[in-house]
Amino acid sequence: MEYQEIMERKRKITSTPVHPLPEETVNKIIKEFTQSHMKSKQLYDEALTCLTEGVQHNLSPNFPFPLAMDRGEGYKLWDIDGNEYIDYLMCGAPIILGHHFKPLDEKIAEHIRTKGPTTGLTSEYEILAAKQIKKMMPNIEKVRFVQSGSEAIMAALRIARANTGHEKIIKIEGNYHGWGDQTVIGLHIPGTGMMMSEGIPTECLSNTLTVMPNDFDGLRNTFEDAKKQGNVAACLVEANGGEAGTHPVHPDWNKYVRELCDEFGALMIMDEVITGFRIAKGGAQEYYGIKPDIVTLGKVLMHGYPSCGAVAGRAEVMDSLAGGEGSAAGSHAFVAGTLAANALSTMASYYALKFVEEYNAVDKAAAYAEKLTKELNDLFEARPDLPFFAYNQKSIIIYDTTAFFSVDINQPDAFMQIMNRMKVAKEYQLALTSKGVMNLAGSRMYTCMQHDENALTKTLETWEYLLSLIPKN
User: Fold this and answer.
1) Block mean pLDDT (10 aa), the chain, length 473
2) Which of 79, 87, 271, 400 is catalytic?
3) Under a CB-based contact definition with an 8 Å cutoff, are residues 169 and 209 in contact?
4) Which among 125, 176, 399, 446 is annotated as catalytic?
5) Nearest Cα to 243, choosing from 408, 404, 14, 431?
6) Is 228 a known active-site residue?
7) Is residue 225 flagged as an active site residue?
8) Domains in the chain, please, with CATH?
9) Residue 81 annotated among the catalytic residues of the structure
């Protein structure tokens, strides 16, 4: 589906009322769901006594309560009550080989049995993993491992400032770049500004400049205005658009960002925490044909294993980053992490990326996503009273039913609309989850190479069930 059609269809959804499930239907689903997930409910009640909000995972579906999982295998998950799910959350995107992928897990298990998890010192696997990343992303020359995508973003911004001598950072509204102080602005929905910046001093965001998605004139104006105040160190982008393509990019957007960065002496930072090794083997930079100066990688690197993140880029840019304790004080950007580049995590990265190549995982996951997207749209077209639609960027599927991410924040009732649309989307997601299909945030689905015809049939049946619950106009 082309960009213009996607944007027009999003506008159609947000310009018309939502289609809620009847209250009695929602109440019935909640009752049945609670009865069949009692162990999860009991665990959540206990978690409320010792964990903030009773849940640690911001990707976890939490209506009416979060589910506690027991295990994963291939494209399936099982919760502690024994309920089975076709998983499209995929740990937030890194699982593309499939859960509990035995060739990878056996490598890790053998390492733990024979050598232990980590030593706190260098191992050969950080070199092997870095070389594998360079092989798959030829634009990259040097790699520095960190412990999360958020850390990678923080490091990238520091590297950009150290390299250019400038302080301003341009961030696109609606793009998500982790929870670091300098990027928690304009999260999720473009135009929301500092709405989610509680606890962050305004001074931390004083050098972060924001631009609305695909605002070509606004981007140039921001670069020009910043030049009068000290210039821009970097422009930071999710290459396929905010929230992993929920706010899709105009076909010319990434090219224009690259051109303006070159024109104004800024660095282009491409956030590939989601897209790396998923949208293409070489990531979004290969898919869009763009050469960023710095790339950030996160959970995608280690295929679900922890302490996963890296910042990478051109050698002359990355060489402004301090190495170990021998680095000259004050001459480099400082980044540290006791468990960064530990042997277990870098081993997981090395073998996971090799297996992604060996098993052709990117193309297999994308082929399934293409088929599922087409079948979903066929289902939606059978209900012309509903403006629902889906589109995909390789193995990333975005489906719009209430389009709460796309509400125009300038409308007088914008926040009421957002909350109402989010409520309906959560009810839809509950209906799908209750029948064994696990999606992400009522808006996205990630596929892996092991999703098959059985998964497709079950998924479509579950969506048909949801559509049957929505009253016809």
Assistant:
1) 96 96 98 98 96 84 92 98 98 96 97 91 95 96 96 96 95 95 92 89 93 97 89 96 94 97 97 96 96 96 93 95 60 85 95 98 98 98 97 97 94 94 96 96 94 98 98 89
2) 271
3) yes
4) 176
5) 404
6) no
7) no
8) 3-97+360-469 (3.90.1150.10), 102-358 (3.40.640.10)
9) no
